[in-house]
Structure to design on (374 residues):
């Protein structure tokens, strides 16, 4: 049995094909590059399941919108478009700071990486702050999911459409908010490790993967924003 | 048996661009995303005759934004094709899910609301037939 490894562009002494050069390389991978590709493939598979997780909720939302078209349009008037647009902008900027952080990581700029990670966390916190403001406003008005719905307003009486709208609103933005919270945790973990100088051109996989996760969270919001705040 | 590993993707991963042009591409992507957000907010204020048109416009812009994020921020443009394939497969299956759900629900008779708290409906009247003089009589047992 022979094992031959042809590496066209070897990145120095770590890619020796025997797996003992880089301390980050696990023994079951041929080299760092194979490890990186494998890990990234796994991350993309996870992201595909995330798309399908939210996809189920999007399909449900779409079907209920078809069933209660008038109620959904009326209910969405209670969402403040300006706050939704603000949060979209904040998340897009955070996606940019994240990608700049990944770039800093792979070009050995430790200080820049930490700064960009902290900026990303700051944007995430602003997003959640705005979301908290929105949620508390809905709570005070009784615009709540399912049988908690208790809004005293001049709407179609007896219709389940409003409660259904807010069920989906809280479910989807809530699940998205949980993803933001998880993202903040991951970003903080990465920032601490980056501050210790653990990442470099040779090894920045965790930064890259957290970046992919963060962009997916942004991507989901890109669809949530028009569907909830802009339908008419 | 021999294990042969070829790594032939010169373009993939970290070393595709010099940092300056890479940073410029990211900034351009961000600006494009922000402009598209402004457009989608502006378009939502205009009534194009039917609400469906507004939804189509909003979702089209959202899809352009999502594509920009996936291609540039998530590096799919310079990544291994297999990762792009998985991303595309995720959206493809979501599309199938979405399409068939809407075809299914859209082709049904409208459902009537059911009140589960209402008293039960009275038992159906026994089957009757009319005799020769027009009076209802219970149907004959078979």
């Amino acid at each position: 049995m022979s094992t031959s490894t042809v590496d066209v562009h070897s990145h120095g002494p770590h890619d020796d094909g025997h797996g003992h050069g880089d301390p980050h390389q696990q023994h079951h991978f041929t080299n760092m590059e194979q490890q990186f590709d494998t890990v990234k493939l796994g991350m993309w598979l996870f992201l595909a399941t995330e798309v399908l997780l939210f996809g189920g909720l999007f399909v449900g939302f779409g079907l209920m919108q078809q069933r209660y078209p008038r109620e959904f349009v009326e209910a969405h008037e209670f969402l403040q478009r300006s706050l939704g647009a603000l949060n979209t902008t904040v998340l897009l900027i955070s996606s940019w700071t994240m990608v700049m952080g990944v770039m800093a990581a792979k070009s050995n700029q430790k200080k820049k990486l930490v700064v960009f990670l902290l900026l990303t966390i700051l944007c995430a916190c602003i997003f959640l702050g705005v979301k908290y403001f929105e949620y508390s406003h809905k709570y005070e008005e009784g615009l709540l999911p399912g049988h908690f719905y208790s809004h005293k307003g001049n709407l179609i009486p007896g219709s389940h459409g409003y409660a259904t709208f807010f069920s989906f609103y809280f479910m989807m933005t809530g699940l998205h908010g949980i993803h933001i919270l998880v993202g903040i945790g991951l970003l903080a973990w990465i920032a601490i490790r980056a501050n210790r100088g653990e990442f470099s051109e040779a090894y920045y996989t965790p930064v890259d993967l957290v970046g992919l996760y963060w962009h997916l969270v942004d991507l989901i919001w890109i669809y949530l924003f028009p569907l909830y705040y802009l339908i008419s | 048996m021999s294990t042969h590993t070829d790594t032939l993707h010169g373009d993939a991963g970290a070393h595709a661009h010099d940092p300056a042009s890479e940073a410029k591409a990211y900034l351009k992507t961000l600006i494009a995303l922000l402009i598209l957000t402004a457009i989608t907010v502006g378009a939502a204020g205009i009534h194009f005759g039917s609400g469906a048109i507004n939804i189509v416009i909003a979702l089209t812009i959202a899809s352009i934004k999502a594509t920009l994020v996936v291609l540039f921020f998530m590096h799919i443009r310079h990544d291994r094709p297999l990762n792009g394939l998985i991303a595309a497969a995720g959206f493809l299956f979501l599309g199938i899910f979405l399409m068939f759900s809407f075809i299914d629900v859209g082709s049904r008779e409208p459902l009537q609301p059911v009140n589960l708290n209402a008293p039960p409906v009275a038992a159906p009247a026994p089957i009757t037939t009319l005799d020769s003089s027009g009076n209802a009589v219970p149907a004959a047992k078979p």
User: Anything to note?
Assistant: Confidence is low (pLDDT under 50) at residues 1-15 of chain B. The first helix of chain B runs from residue 19 to 44.
